[in-house]
Amino acid sequence: MKEDDVIRQLEKLDKEIEAAKNDLGRSEGRLSALMQSLERDFSLKTLDEAEKELASLKNQIEKMRSEFDSSFAKLKESYQW
User: In this predicted model, what pLDDT tens digit does every residue of 25-71 receive, in sequence order?
Assistant: First the structure.
């Protein structure tokens, strides 16, 4: 392999490393903004807290859906639709 080829490969790798560093910086910035929104909007400080809250909300939705279905079935029975 010629010296010029090695230099070109190293320069290419250097550009790829710089691009990856820039992507990492942008991703870290987005993550920071999202975590701030999570705390500001929902008073949750960690992803673990958010996952637990999400599971709780899903559970509440399922209970409400079940209650609605039951009430609707009773209503249909009452009025014989």
Answer: 999 999 999 999 999 999 999 999 999 999 999 999 999 999 999 99
CA distance 13 to 3: 15
C-alpha–C-alpha distance, residues 43 and 50, integer Å:
9
Q: Which residue is it, tokens 């910035």?
A: 29
User: Could you tell me the pTM of the whole model?
Assistant: 0.66
pLDDT in tens, 7-28: 999 999 999 999 999 999 999 9
Q: Are 36 and 50 in contact (CB under 8 A)?
A: no
Q: How many CB atoms lie within 10 A of CB 28?
A: 10
